[in-house]
Amino acid sequence: MLYCANPTCQALNPEDSKFCQKCRTPLVRQYLWGDGSGVELLQLGELLGDRYLYKGDRVFVDTKPGLLSANSSELPASYLPYLRLSPLRLHVPQVYEWFPTSDLDEVIALFDHAPFWVLPDKGESEGVVPQVQLFPAILSVWAEASPLRQLNWLWQMANLWQPLSSEQVVSSLLNPDLLRVEGGILRLLELRPDSIAISLTALGELWLQWSVTARPEIADRLQEMSQQVIQGQIHNAELLVELVDEAIAQVAQAQSRSVQIATLSDQGPTRQRNEDACSPESGTVQALQPEGGAATVIVCDGIGGHQGGDVASHLAIAAVEQRLKVLKPEALDAVTLTVELEKAVCLANDQISQRNDSEQRYDRQRMGTTLVMGLLRDHELYVTHIGDSRVYWITRQGCHQITLDDDVASREVRLGYSTYRQALQQPSSGSLVQALGMGASNQLYPTVQRLILDEDSVFLFCSDGLSDNDRVDACWDTEILPLLLGKADLATVAQRLVEVANTLNGYDNATVGLLYCQVADSAPVPKLSSLSMRLQSSDTATAIAVPFAKTAKSAVDPTQPDSIGSTVIGTQLLKQKSSSVNPLPLLLGIVALASLGLGLIAALLPLGQRARSPIVAPQSASPIALPSTRQSDINVLPTLTVGSRIQLQRTSPDGQLPRLFSDPQALPDPQALPDPQALPSAAPQVLGMVAIGSTLEVLSTGGTTPQDRWVQLRVCSTPAGASPESPSESLPATPQVAPESASPEIQVSPSAAVESPSVPASSATLLRLGQVGWIREANILPWVGLSQSSPEQKGVCTNSVTFNRPLAD
């Protein structure tokens, strides 16, 4: 039996009904996966916690899905990685509820977003109790999968390696029974804690075993990649992702894609104006052939209760579209395009903020908007979002929300403070932590995801007028699935979704954008050349270096639209020249000029200065030096790893020294918008600042995204003359808090209010030897290099000490 989720109804219905027999609201079937030894003691049909019906094989159904969790106890530490990995819930299940057992050390945990398959197909049968089973394990379908799908699964594994490693659960990727596949989507059944430190070599060994049964077109390439991972030639997950990416790009050429787009926006039955906006404009239904170009869909939701929300929505779309025209996305590599999409969002934010400032809009008068955007390019879909508008990915097997709302509840989860259903109990759970137009772009953190498409898919972009109250989850099988089954057209689906929003919600504007991508084989899959042959070509060697050139390739001012076009054109011309011009004379000329330049520099330097400057032998035999940047004296590190030692080599551009905090939970949230009217809370304790030249040891790490990732550091050594009691006069001044008008309060409806934390206190004290503290990786990574760890630099870190990561309160 299922209770209706409609709060004004909550009637009891048989499980085989699709709609509430009293109010006709679609019934929510929330199937959950049970973990814990206590599950084995339950009887079929037993109720857990007076609401969770046990259906056998560790499967439960929530009979009261409309009620929030009544559990206020602290989640056991072993389940915290699930919370911090919540941005990856397309692949990682999420804690829904848990119960203590008779054994106080054990709990029964129930997981949402588990890899379930509901039979018979939803939308097909009425009066039949659905049967639930797990999606197949990867090895059971590996040999029969297409080359593109095999590479797609490997690409997702490589992308998951770093975040799972940070949470010390990466061994989950090495257990094929835990790797479930839903078409082209790789999903984990559960997370297993690492008993020992695991290196990328283990993944290479696993892939080497799989290469035996891989499709012939990719088997040799997979075998060689695996061997190079084992041998350490491919030494990090980022480089592995790049190599798999290149293989996917070649194999995907054997497929063709047809694309249809439809948009529809409606004021709603109760609103006096429509503050939503979309692109293409509302009412559009069009078919595209994206080969050689890019298809885009944008949906914006003006923040409710603000003057000019509709103006902000249209400003954001106009700014982003103008930027994309200049960018020519089809000509950019994946890394550059990702960065430029972020810049496009920031540019839109600046234009809205400037409009607010020019019209002297403050506090509640400021206009703002959310944004979700999809950019389809060949076999890739780039999803950009900020705020609480959403994107859903629908296939024949299921429906998945692939964006994470920028609200307080979601922030509580990813910081490891509470489960999502617990966080929803807070009065401010729906308050936004960021939106366009509310502040400076340097405090904005848009999210860009990249998906590989190897099957027919529908992507739904919508405002919260539709997504509120889980309407999409409840109706996707009746309203969107027929499109994939050839039983409905795109325009009808868009109209029906707006009707669902207006009839079942009805209190807000409703906007939908649909992107329907159909994939078909159009040519034989080419057999990939061996990796060793590929590495010998100069063009490919440049491609492999992409992870280390992300900053240089994307260092373009978003306010100068012509700069991108010039950069792309220049790059293309250079590639054409390189294939027809013999580079040897040019290289010899560069070497000669470099030698002459060094001689002139040596002659012009003062004699005393030359005597104090030792000659350092070159570490590379390469005759060509890449153009230096402002950070040329720093070894660019992709990320910080546990056990490594680093040295602070310079301050940030504003002259600030990095500060360590006593508690990672006290670190300022990079996604929070300052609230000038909020009551001040207890400021986190700043232990002190890191002096330039200090050597530090990485003790532990955490977080899933570049914004969230934090590191625990210990001071191994400090430069001579750095006294904690007497800070240098050159230390940067304490930063001042911005005036209230710079970051106004956002007062909106429960689904779009804005809340933010207080600004932490600062300190001018330098850290002492042996002190341990926390810092966000992004606040120190650009200014450090790997330390050579001389005896003096090792200092107090000579002996290895193990530190346990503190748990969330």
UniProtKB/TrEMBL annotation:
<keyword id="KW-1133">Transmembrane helix</keyword>
<dbReference type="Pfam" id="PF13672">
    <property type="entry name" value="PP2C_2"/>
</dbReference>
<feature type="transmembrane region" description="Helical">
    <location>
        <begin position="584"/>
        <end position="605"/>
    </location>
</feature>
<dbReference type="InterPro" id="IPR001932">
    <property type="entry name" value="PPM-type_phosphatase-like_dom"/>
</dbReference>
<feature type="compositionally biased region" description="Low complexity">
    <location>
        <begin position="718"/>
        <end position="735"/>
    </location>
</feature>
<feature type="region of interest" description="Disordered">
    <location>
        <begin position="651"/>
        <end position="679"/>
    </location>
</feature>
<dbReference type="InterPro" id="IPR036457">
    <property type="entry name" value="PPM-type-like_dom_sf"/>
</dbReference>
<feature type="domain" description="PPM-type phosphatase">
    <location>
        <begin position="260"/>
        <end position="517"/>
    </location>
</feature>
<protein>
    <submittedName>
        <fullName>Protein phosphatase 2C domain-containing protein</fullName>
    </submittedName>
</protein>
<feature type="region of interest" description="Disordered">
    <location>
        <begin position="262"/>
        <end position="286"/>
    </location>
</feature>
<keyword id="KW-0472">Membrane</keyword>
<feature type="region of interest" description="Disordered">
    <location>
        <begin position="718"/>
        <end position="745"/>
    </location>
</feature>
<keyword id="KW-0812">Transmembrane</keyword>
